[in-house]
Amino acid sequence: MSKINIMLVEDHNIVRQGLKRLIEMEEGLSVTAEAGTCAEAMEKLNNNVDVVLLDIKLPDGDGLELCRVMSKSNPRLKFIALTTYDDAYFIRKALDCGVHGFIPKYASFEEIKSAIDITVRDGHYLYPGLGLDVIMKLPQTGLTDVETRVLQMIAAGETQKDVAASLFMSLSTLRRRIKGICTKLGVETVEEALAAAVKKGLIE
């Protein structure tokens, strides 16, 4: 059986090199290209690539948009998202953007190998514990009650420190939440998230 050729798109060199070493130790896998930005990924993409292990947040753009662009140039590519976002709404958005598999960055290498194998054979892979049927039934609004509350409090003029204290979470956790909100709404900043939420009728 021929090897599965993989492209690594990850901006953290240590993570990318660690993954590369682990993948190259597997008999049926090979890293044929690697990149740390969207631009570099487009430049290095070649016809030998079968699977793209793709970080969603890259220095020069959105990994989901990169997935859309790459899919147009090579429809046979399989994309597996590597990300810190593991909530159902985000996964559904990633699937809608053309991602075939989803692996949180805390997953083991064995799970990553399984994701690659299953995605190539069967077309889709979701890490254990979250079913595709659950994701596809999610409402389109995307934000949880807590996330909506976060936006409401920020819109009311409260500082991030005050919001975190009111919701009994650390400031770093709140900031991860805000990043997740921005990703769900397809924006980059808190200000854009507030504007998008108002437009969608999620907050006033």
From TrEMBL:
Name the record gives this protein: Stage 0 sporulation protein A homolog
PROSITE patterns, per database record: RESPONSE_REGULATORY
Modified residues (4-aspartylphosphate): 55
Domain Response regulatory stretches: 5-120
SUPFAM superfamilies in the cross-refs: C-terminal effector domain of the bipartite response regulators (SSF46894), CheY-like (SSF52172)
Superkingdom of the organism of origin: Bacteria
Keyword terms of this UniProt record: DNA-binding, Phosphoprotein, Transcription, Transcription regulation
Gene3D superfamilies xref list: 3.40.50.2300
PANTHER family associated with the record: TRANSCRIPTIONAL REGULATORY PROTEIN DESR, TWO-COMPONENT RESPONSE REGULATOR
Gene Ontology MF term list: DNA binding
One BP annotation, GO: phosphorelay signal transduction system
One protein family per Pfam: Response_reg
Protein function: May play the central regulatory role in sporulation. It may be an element of the effector pathway responsible for the activation of sporulation genes in response to nutritional stress. Spo0A may act in concert with spo0H (a sigma factor) to control the expression of some genes that are critical to the sporulation process.
Organism: Desulfallas thermosapovorans DSM 6562
